[in-house]
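Input structure tokens:
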């Protein structure tokens, strides 16, 4: 399956100066990643720990690997040496484990806190009080979190054809993001990761500055996503 080069150029042009494009390459072969890489793409998103490890081992070292899936604590050590940004941090316990593994690697790992914005029950993420509790915990004890950096928020809208509902969810997340920026002193807190193939234009209109796009670039995935 070849990558859609025309679509890639179109999306890059649309996002220029507004949002970082994370090309979501989960389930896709190395050849597809190399094809986008050859066009200048450097940010790639993966959901599965084993898969990103395998790809990272053989693909160019200047690729920035974004982990966008649900991350289990016992797998953090497998991506800690190389991961560029972890999008789906949804608990203080996970943040502490990332900090611990980052310390072992002598790194500081950038993290986004995942917020639950969809009405669906199945999506992971923090609600507003939980989000504020995690931020407050990090600020209260900076030395305990010296190896992580809170860089923003991530969210997934409802999987729905109801554009008004999806749009409202994005606007709500942008509101939360602005609220955190206003309330806390977090110098690196600048990314709002929201928007996928089906809804990225609405997400960017609502204030997203990082979108995660897979199927529009790489075609439909061969097997269903889990997690
Ligand atoms: C798979 C996935 C994407 C990309 O989805 P597309 O609809 O293929 O663009 C974005 N974000 C997350 C968290 C994903 O799991």
């Amino acid at each position: 399956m070849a990558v859609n080069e025309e679509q890639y150029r179109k999306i890059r042009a649309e996002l220029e100066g507004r949002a970082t494009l994370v090309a979501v390459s989960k389930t896709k072969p190395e050849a597809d990643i190399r094809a986008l890489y050859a066009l200048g793409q450097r940010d790639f998103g993966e959901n599965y720990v084993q898969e990103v490890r395998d790809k990272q081992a053989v693909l160019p070292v200047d690729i920035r690997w974004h982990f966008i899936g649900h991350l289990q604590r016992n797998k953090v050590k497998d991506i800690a040496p190389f991961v560029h940004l972890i999008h789906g941090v949804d608990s203080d316990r996970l943040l502490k484990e990332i900090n611990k593994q980052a310390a072992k690697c002598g790194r500081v790992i950038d993290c986004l806190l995942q917020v639950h914005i969809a009405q669906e029950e199945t999506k992971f993420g923090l609600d507003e009080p939980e989000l504020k509790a995690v931020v407050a915990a990090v600020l209260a004890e900076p030395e305990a979190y010296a190896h992580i950096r809170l860089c923003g928020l991530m969210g997934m809208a409802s999987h729905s054809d109801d554009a008004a509902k999806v749009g409202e969810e994005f606007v709500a997340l942008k509101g939360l993001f602005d609220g955190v920026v206003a309330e806390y002193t977090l110098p690196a807190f600048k990314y709002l990761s929201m928007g996928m193939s089906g809804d990225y234009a609405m997400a960017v209109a609502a204030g997203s500055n990082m979108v995660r796009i897979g199927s529009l670039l790489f075609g439909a995935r061969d097997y269903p996503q889990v997690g």
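Residues 2 and 24 are 14 Å apart (CA to CA). The chain has a mean pLDDT of 95.
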